[in-house]
């Protein structure tokens, strides 16, 4: 979709996730599928490590830091009223040496239904006193000599010690008793540290792999897109502005790179994190988890609203940025005209308006994010506050361990981060999908000149050109050339003259096979141009145009244009033939002189001589000069005319000119009017006819 100034705006896809486009993109990623899978697996491992962190905290608290046991009166549970409870939860209890006295750990206590816990507490079956268990392999007499009050022996030889007695022991003895717990906490801390190192290492490798994969895929796509652009006919470039084509190869491809490195892996990891967190919460305490899930509909509704608002704000911002870029490109290129007519103030006012629109679009996007992010933080705080209130009450009632509550809080805090990430990445996904749509739309363009399946090459190129009843129009409904026929024999110099718009340059474009004729045939040395191999045709026919394009690079590079078969001697010979050697040798670095953009350091005549040398570098058999001397000074025109005269006998020359003085010495002159050849002959013959050529000559004089 084309916006103002010819720049592409963000597309609006009917479906946000176009499976057809994703499948086409997958074809580019197929050679790197192993790398993508490796990146996804590493991302999965990193997510698993992150999920383990709160659970490790829970293990450290419940199993080692706050490990405790509670007494259960088994005598009362033996009756019919509580027999069912004993049958269901008996495997969770450890028997002491005292008849009908059992103990249950805090870890096993959370496995009992909260309703049953209330029954046990209300009837005095479950004690509230906390005990610490010492294993059967340790002798407690060295710590509790003579004072065994409240200490119970277990059936397996271990001992249950009330916590109040532990607290009365000296710190040294307490550390000896709880050495196993200290070792357990140390082990958990060690595992935690190892997981952090592994997460760091895997995150680095995963980021590197996906960045490398994305860059390689983008490199392939850029090459494919540029190759497809180069293969298009000039009709294609007549319709699309340069800025649009550059945007496709740069910005749009860059957006796809963001899709690979910032979206696919991140979204995959975030979705896994969300599912993993929900699963762990349900495992830890499904009742509390379901209560927390009440916020999920609110979160999803807010996320959907934010995604819609952010997408619209982002599109508006991108549109204003595109207009600013187009405005700056046009004004900077035309700065000479602006300063010439003293229009700086008016241009400042125009730019001020565009800049204000960009500012307002940026502030709109900021307001959307400024609203959504605090809302998500508020919901996160509400969830945590609810956990502290409700979960804390359950901890006090011994219905849930403190470690589970701490883990719950940690997982809830983690839960909101992937939701925020997915919401933010949704805009990148939309932008990338719009770019993908535009890229593949360009790749589907097939305005390509057909190549002959069996190309033909003449044994010797002589430069014999024949137009046979050729008709052509850039628009099929508007013909430029009508039934044109003429012949240019080898070694002959033929000029084409006529008023502006008569079709002279169109003839040149057809000879160079920038276009194919709608009707008729064009042959070179008896072979239709459509049957010539494209590279051989370009070597046999060379064009020197009025509008000279100079690339950034050295003088030598601008003449050779990267042709590998052209040696430095060949470049120098072409410059000498074109009479350009004189000014080149006067440059500071000669052929190695660096030229700026569009050859800004050269005069117009020097640029034209350089273009002439470029055309002669491949030693073409047919040389076309399209208004090559119309905008040069008399000295440069004399140099070009001298060069043409010197090589006229070596090659066929086709000259298109407005200045009739430059074609008087041509072997034959063709007069084109309204797309038809009206007159042809030498200068003297045409003047004697007193027809169109005569009128053009008099008008010129």
Form type = rod-shaped
> In percent terms, what proportion of residues is strand?
5-15%
Name the CATH class of the largest domain: Mainly Alpha
Strand order of the biggest β-sheet? 12-15-16-9-17-18
Mean pLDDT: 82
Query: In terms of per-residue confidence, which ranges show pLDDT below 50 for 5 or more consecutive residues?
Result: 1-17
Radius of gyration: 42 Å
Count of discrete domains: 3
CATH superfamily of the largest domain: ABC transporter type 1, transmembrane domain
Secondary structure category: alpha+beta
What CATH architecture of the largest domain do you see? Answer: Up-down Bundle
Terminus-to-terminus distance:
50 Å
* Sheet having the most strands: 6 strands, mixed
Number of separate helices: 25
- Helical residue percent band: 55-70%
* Total strands: 18
CATH-defined topology of the largest domain: ABC transporter transmembrane region fold
Plain-language structure description:
- The protein is of the alpha+beta class.
- The chain folds into three domains: 4-40 and 203-443, ABC transporter type 1, transmembrane domain (ABC transporter transmembrane region fold); 63-182; 465-548 and 602-608 and 623-700, Rossmann fold.
- The protein contains 25 helices and 18 strands.
- A six-stranded mixed sheet has the order 12-15-16-9-17-18, with helices on both faces. Strands 8-7-10-11 form a four-stranded antiparallel sheet, with helices on one face.
- β5 and β6 (159-162) form a beta hairpin.
- It is rod-shaped.
- Mean pLDDT is 82; it is low at 1-17.
């Amino acid at each position: 979709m084309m916006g103002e100034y010819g720049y592409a705006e963000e597309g609006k896809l009917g479906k946000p996730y176009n499976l057809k486009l994703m499948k086409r993109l997958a074809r580019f990623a197929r050679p790197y599928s192993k790398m993508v899978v490796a990146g996804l697996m590493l991302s999965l491992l990193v997510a698993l490590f992150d999920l383990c962190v709160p659970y490790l905290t829970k293990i450290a608290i419940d199993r080692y830091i706050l490990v405790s046991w509670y007494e259960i009166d088994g005598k009362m549970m033996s009756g019919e009223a509580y027999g069912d409870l004993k049958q269901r939860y008996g495997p969770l209890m450890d028997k002491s040496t005292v008849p009908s006295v059992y103990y249950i750990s805090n870890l096993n206590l959370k496995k009992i239904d909260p309703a049953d816990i209330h029954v046990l507490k209300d009837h005095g079956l479950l004690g509230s006193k906390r005990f610490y268990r010492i294993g059967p392999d340790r002798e407690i007499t060295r710590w509790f000599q003579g004072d065994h009050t409240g200490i119970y022996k277990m059936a397996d030889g271990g001992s249950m010690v009330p916590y109040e007695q532990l607290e009365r022991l000296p710190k040294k003895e307490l550390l000896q008793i709880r050495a196993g717990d200290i070792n357990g906490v140390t082990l958990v801390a060690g595992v935690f540290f190892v997981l952090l190192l592994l997460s760091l290492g895997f995150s680095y490798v995963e980021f590197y792999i996906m960045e490398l994969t994305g860059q390689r895929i983008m490199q392939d796509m850029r090459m494919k897109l540029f190759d497809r652009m180069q293969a298009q006919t000039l009709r294609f470039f007549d319709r699309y502005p340069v800025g649009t084509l550059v945007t496709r190869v740069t910005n749009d491809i860059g957006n796809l790179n963001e899709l690979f490195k910032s979206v696919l892996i991140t979204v995959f990891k975030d979705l896994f994190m969300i599912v993993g967190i929900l699963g762990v919460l349900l495992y830890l305490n499904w009742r509390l988890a379901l209560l927390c899930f009440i916020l999920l509909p609110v979160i999803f509704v807010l996320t959907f609203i934010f995604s819609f608002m952010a997408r619209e704000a982002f599109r508006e911002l991108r549109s204003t940025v595109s207009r600013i870029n187009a405005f700056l490109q046009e004004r900077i290129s035309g700065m000479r005209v602006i300063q010439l007519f003293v229009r700086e103030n008016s241009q400042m006012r125009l730019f001020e308006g565009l800049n204000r629109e960009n500012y307002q679009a940026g502030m709109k996007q900021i307001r959307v994010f400024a609203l959504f992010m605090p809302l998500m933080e508020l919901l996160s705080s509400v969830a945590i506050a609810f956990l502290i209130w409700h979960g804390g009450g359950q901890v006090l009632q011994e219905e849930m361990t403190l470690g589970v509550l701490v883990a719950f809080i940690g997982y809830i805090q983690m839960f909101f981060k992937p939701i925020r990430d997915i919401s933010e990445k949704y805009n990148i996904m939309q932008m990338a999908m719009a770019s993908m749509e535009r890229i593949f739309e360009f790749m589907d363009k097939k305005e390509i000149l057909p190549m002959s399946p069996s190309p033909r090459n003449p044994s010797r190129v002589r430069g014999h050109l024949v137009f046979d009843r050729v008709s052509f129009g850039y628009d099929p409904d508007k013909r430029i050339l009508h039934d044109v026929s003429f012949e240019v024999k080898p070694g002959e110099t033929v000029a084409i003259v006529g008023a502006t718009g008569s079709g002279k340059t169109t003839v040149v474009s057809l000879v160079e096979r920038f276009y194919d004729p709608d009707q008729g045939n064009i042959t070179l040395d008896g072979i239709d141009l459509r049957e010539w191999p494209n590279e051989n045709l370009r070597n046999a026919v060379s064009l020197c145009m009025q509008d000279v394009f100079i690339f950034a690079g050295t003088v030598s590079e601008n003449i050779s244009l990267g042709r590998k078969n052209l040696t430095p001697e060949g470049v120098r010979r072409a410059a000498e033939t074109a009479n350009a050697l004189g000014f080149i040798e006067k440059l500071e670095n000669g052929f190695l002189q660096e030229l700026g953009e569009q050859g800004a350091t050269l005069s117009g005549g020097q640029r034209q001589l350089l273009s002439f040398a470029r055309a002669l570098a491949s030693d073409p058999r047919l040389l076309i000069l399209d208004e090559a001397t119309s905008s040069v000074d008399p000295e440069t025109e004399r140099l070009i005319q001298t060069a043409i005269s010197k090589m006229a006998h070596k090659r066929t020359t086709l000259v298109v000119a407005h200045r009739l003085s430059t074609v008087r010495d041509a072997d034959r002159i063709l007069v084109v009017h309204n797309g038809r050849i009206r007159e042809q002959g030498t200068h003297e013959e045409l003047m004697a006819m007193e027809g169109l050529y005569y009128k053009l000559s008099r008008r010129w004089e």
